[in-house]
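seq:
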Amino acid sequence: MATEHRSLGPEHPRDAALSVHDMTVAYDGRAVLWDVELDIPRGVVAAIVGPNGAGKSTLLRAVMDLIPRVSGSALVLGGAYEQNRRRVAYVPQRESVDWDFPVSALDVACMGLYPRMGWFKRVGAKEREAGLAALDRVGIRDLAHRHISRLSGGQQQRTFLARALAQDAELYLMDEPFAAVDAATEAAIVSVFHELRARGKTVVAVHHDLQSVRDYFDHVVLLNMRLIAAGPTAEVFTPENLQRTYGGRLTLLSEAADALRHRGAAR
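struct:
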């Protein structure tokens, strides 16, 4: 059931993939997230959508304790992130990665196995085969031994997706996985999303392309510092909620809202 922004109190479903309670995050005294209450159920592919500066990436980082919170708490898979971090895979923004680091695509994919095997254990034949299998799932097994700096932007994104797949997590947090990728990579990522959902996994991705939300995601979180709405895409991704999320920043958004109305009328 869709939920509009309101105080939900301290009780959240214990079986949720991700629960956020009363979360406020600030940088240099300026609030970036304010009093966010949110639950994302398990087994969905969820988009976090909102304008630039809305706090989308900040929400993921705060959930993973990568940045401090002014107030509030978060649960992943029913417990604290520190307790369940091995069950959570994270795909960061591609721009945040040092692509000159001397590793191959296979080396990166095998990093997804470290939470299970330990950081100081040598990668053996079994782990390398698992890394190759993950690269195969995203269509770049033939690039396994190529240095990551020699990969295209789409290939780099697939490599980090392979790392997450090798981890075999239950919850996948992804920050702009479709940013600046080619059409083939975008299709490959969507295919992986659907495969993960079919296996009962949960994907939560920061996303900016409004036109593809309905096609790629079955759950959506609309965010602009505060939670605007969250729930099944069919219920939440409406022209009214989009207008509330983007406000006066809309130029193309009004056209997107019209397109949604026409699409709904045609069904």
